[in-house]
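Today's session is about reading a structure prediction critically. Students often jump straight to the picture, but the first step is always the sequence itself: look for stretches that repeat, for charged clusters, for runs of hydrophobic residues. Only then move on to the predicted structure, which in these notes is written as discrete structure tokens rather than atom positions. Here is the chain we will use throughout the hour.
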Amino acid sequence: MAVLHKNLVRETFLGLSAEELNETQQQARSYLDAFNLFRGWKSASGDMVTLDPLPFVLEHQEMEFLQTGLAQWARILTALYHDLWGPQTLVQNGIVSVTDLWRDAGFEPGYAGGLPEGADPLTVVGFTLQRNGDRWQVVKVDTERPSGLGYSLEDRIVHSRCFFSTLRPENLLRMAPFFVKLKELWYRRESPTVMVWTEGPEDRDYFEPVYLARYFGFPLVESRDLTVRSGKVYLKTLGGLQPVDLLMRWVSDSAIDPLVGNPPPASGVAGLAQAVRDGRLGVSNAPGAGLLARPVMMERLAACATALTGESLTIPVAAPGGGGNTLQEPYWSGTDWQERPALLRVFLARFTDGWQMMPGGILESTADGRTARKDVWMLEPTAVPQVSLLPEGEKPSFIVRAGELPSRVADDLFWLGRYTERAWFDARVLETWWQATYQAGIEAHLPMPELLTEVLRETGAAKAQDENGDDLEPWDPRGWRLATTLSEVERISSHVLDRLSAETHRILGSFGSRSMPEARSLIPRFFEDLNLRLAALNGLTNENMTRSAGWRFLDMGRRFERAGLGLATVTAFFSRDTTDQALTVLLELFDSSLTYRSRYRLTPQPAPVLDLLLLDETNPRSFAFQVEQLSAHIDELPRPLGRAHRSVEERLILELSTAVRL
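Below is the predicted structure for this chain, in token form.
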């Protein structure tokens, strides 16, 4: 490791061979794919964003200038918030016109006086800057939610894994202490409940709150997870309502509270704005903060700064349209270095000792439909100390075996279990039908494809007609339920990104992107690949997930679906054909042929087949096994204290279990 300066960093990276650069850049792409799961790192055109090998370097003097200038911006934005949502002296003095405020900036009166006395409206602010000659200018600010904060952290982690072997600077400021201080800022009170609040997978920036929730160790919640009772915000969990103290907001102003707005938003948490106003909930950043970043307010900011603080902006506002940017940086194209215009994005957080700039950021360039990003290095003149991620003096923690599970997450995991089991069943029956029809040879029992066709229809695995009423052949993928099921697997799993491992999500995320095969020759390989992925998924969830309430709901969904499809299939077979070959196919469908042969050593007969598939509690594919597993899960579900009687669910499963055993 060494103390480096800007020119040495550039010379070192620009001197690498094309082979070295492409190899490390490909390695970075693989890390990003692993981090980003479904979303994130997509440009406006849908192309993957590239992480450039050469970092953008800010040395001490320039870094200090930006720190001072942007801290001034943050103080002015704070004063502007208090004025616009308070006395509105700027409007009274004509600096901000009524038209500017109400029509162009979209002022929402429901947020007026929305903070308790002495509360700070801004916690983290993002700034996008350009350089005009040798002067920095602010192009835009992010006061609603600091988009890019998670990506800049990811940049640093990925870049350090892939490129730090080239240079290991001792004087590079680390980002970890900044995030430690940010976490400590929210933990100023005793044992607060802090959560990351997101709009859900429909949000194009959904990956960022997921990534930050994992990094901080905070629960990830959506608006439907929260409710307000007697002016206090609670998380809806299986065990009841859990109070919430602070929300790290990744939700736009227009989606905070359906009781605020004209017209009111379709989403949000009813009563949340009043809870913030009463000081019973902290939100970063405060509701209504997005008003500060509107273009009309940026145009008036210099005048507002003088009126509110008597100061002139050290870093001015860029002219509308972003013209005049002279910041050009070399980006690796795969064959050579190309100069491209770029914008710098940095972040400031309000700590107890004032506003502090995060020692990192993003330098982003978009040209020719391709987006590339650089990690931002901030170098000190001398070596900097290594700082642990763990804060000093941390109190010992109580041992906890299980966390609270939001009821929405429990529902999503239950349906994820159902859909993955349904996908396994459909693939199994369709593959068996395909083999019986096209691969069984001349010795095959001819009625078998017809029987399996009826099973496909009765279990819903394949439709007989399309939306226009035209007949569909069983081999036509347009009629298979499997395509819809796999899409649902991907959709639901995107709602539980923070609940499952990255390995699990890589498997889940590949389902919805797999199109149904158009050529018959590709169908066998399709089923083989799908079965392997489903087997890997079951292995990961069974071996790697802790046996918490989340895992129980996932497994309950799987057991519930397996029991229903199993009964439907056995009924379809026994109502039509109980020949040796039909029973053999039935055993194969439920992966029970080996067990049957090891026990009976004779051709399949109805009575032992029924016993194995319905009543045998040791067979993981039997109906009785599913009932017993469901019973065990229901016994472990949270229940109200002091309840003297069995719940409806417990009574139903007891009745069913007794009927099966008798």
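Discussion point for the tutorial: Confidence is low (pLDDT under 50) at residues 38-46, 388-401.
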